[in-house]
Task: structure prediction
Amino acid sequence: MKRRKVIKHIGLGLSAGIALPGWLASCKGDDPAPTPGYEGTVAIVGAGAAGLYTADILKAQGIKVILFEASDRLGGRVKTLKTTDKPSASLIFNSLSPLSSDFPNELGAGQIIGSDSSWGKVVEQLKLTTVNLGTATTNNYFLDGAFVESSAAEADSDFIAAKNFFDNIATYSGGNVSVQQAILSAGISPRMYAILNSWIGNKYGTTNERMSMLALSDGLKLVTRNNELQTLSDNPMQDALLSRFSNVAVDVMSNTVVSEIDYTGEKIVMYGENTASAETFSVEVDKVIVTAPVSILKSGSISFTPGLNAKKTAALSRMDMDPALRILLDFKANFWGADSGFLYGGTTAPDYFTSGAGRSDVNRTMAVTIAGPEAATLSALGKDAIPVLLAELDTIFDGKATLNIRKDLNDNIIAIIQDWSLEPFIKGGMSYAKPGGTNQDRIDLAEPVNSKLFFAGEATDVNGEFGTLNGALLSAERAAQEVIDSI
Ligand SMILES: Cc1cc2nc3c(=O)[nH]c(=O)nc-3n(C[C@H](O)[C@H](O)[C@H](O)COP(=O)(O)OP(=O)(O)OC[C@H]3O[C@@H](n4cnc5c(N)ncnc54)[C@H](O)[C@@H]3O)c2cc1C
Result:
C-alpha cells in the first residue's frame, strides 16, 4: 500500500510539526470493501480478542477500520509460547533448554469456559478438537498441609459447605463486601479459605479479600453459557484467535502506542508513537473504540480530551487489575497424578494445572497461575520465584518437586515465567470489581460518549463474563453494534 493511499484511506490529518511516520507506509494488504453509506474510519485501540472482533464485525459491514496495537504482537492476553519467543522483562526463560511438552503451552488464556460460550462457538466453527477437562481430569486439593484426592475432599463436611458456598454465589443477597467477608459470614471453616481463593479470587485475577462479592454475584446471575471447561487438544489458543480474525490482521498497525484521543472536534484526533521507529504520529478518524485493559485506562497513559466523565472515572476507581503470573514448571515425572487437572488450595500458588492432561502422555508440565499480592511478591523475585513454588510443592509432596524438576546441563531448572504485570501495555491479569463496586460500573465504563468514543474489552463486559475471552468477545459485539447504531 502506498503512503499517499494510506493518507487518503484512513483520512490522516497531520498536526503541525509532526512528521508523517514512515511505518504507516508499510501497511500490508488491500483496501477494505467500499463503505455503503458511511465514508468514515473507525479506529480501534488494541488488537486483543476484543479489538480484533470489533474490527471483524465492522469490516464485514463495509466500514473502514484501523487497529492500533502498542505491542509487537496480536492477541493481547491470548499468548502461546513459541519456539521463536525471545526472553524479555515479562517473559523469563530460566534455561535455554525447551520444555518436554508435546502440546502448546499457554502463557495467558488457556481454557475455553463453556462449550456453548462465545469463544466455545469460535472453537467449534474452526473445527478444533478439544479436551473436556470435567471428564478427562480430576481436580485435587492441598488441605491441612497435605495432598487430598478429589474423592476424599468431597467427603469432608467443610469442603461440602465451601462447595455449596461456591455453587451459590449467584444467589448471594448480602451486602457489598469482599468475597472473603461473605465467606466469613457464611461460617465456612478456615480450612477451606485457600481452596475458595483458588476457585474464586485467583480465577478472577486477584484474591477473595480484594474483590466484591456483590459485583461477582450480579455478574454470575447474567451468565447463560454452560460450565463445561475445555482446552484445545492440539492447537495454540493464539493461533485459533488469529486464524478466526485473520482478515483484520492486515488492518493492524503494530508497535503503535496511542497516547491521546482528542474528540473535541468533528473529527477525532489520535496521537501516539511508533515504538519501533520512535516516530510520533497524529491521525484523524471518525470514531474510536478503546479496548485497552483497565490497568492502562486507570494509569492515565491514554489521555482523553475532554477527560473521561465522572461516571467512568468513578467506575474505574471501583475496579482494579492485579499482577498475574503464569509459570511453567517441567518435571521428569508426573508425581501428582496422571489424570490430575487442577491442584487447588495452594497459598503461594492457588492454581497448579496439569496442562497436558487429556491431551498428551507427556503430561508432566505444570502451568501455575498466581494473581493478586502473592503474584506481586513473586514478580519482584524474578527467576527466584521458581524455588518458592517448588518449596510449596515439596511440602505437599515430600520433596518430590525438587527431586523431579528437569534441569539443563548447566543445572538450570527448566521453567518459564510470563509476568503479565510487566507487559507494558497490559500491566496485570484481569479486571475485577473491588468491594463497593457493582456490575453497573462495567455498564458505565462501556457506555459510548457522544457517538464517537466507544469501549470494549473484558472489563466492559456486561454479561457476567468479565475476565474471560468470552467477555472480550461479547463486549466486541456490543461495541460494534453501538458503532453501527451511531452511524
Ligand atoms: C494468566 C491469564 C490466564 C487467563 N486464562 C483465561 C482462560 O483460561 N480462559 C479465558 O477465557 N480467559 C482467560 N484469561 C482472560 C483473557 O485472556 C482476557 O479476558 C482476554 O484475552 C482479554 O481480551 P481484551 O481484548 O479485552 O484485552 P487484551 O487481550 O489485553 O487486549 C488489549 C490490547 O490493547 C493493547 N493496548 C494497550 N494499551 C494500548 C495503547 N495505548 N495503544 C495501543 N494498544 C494498546 C494491548 O497491547 C493489548 O494487545 C486469562 C488471562 C490471564 C492474564
The longest helix spans residues 469-486. The radius of gyration is 23 Å. The first strand starts at residue 41 and ends at 45. The domain at 3-75+238-320+435-486 is CATH 3.50.50.60 (FAD/NAD(P)-binding domain).
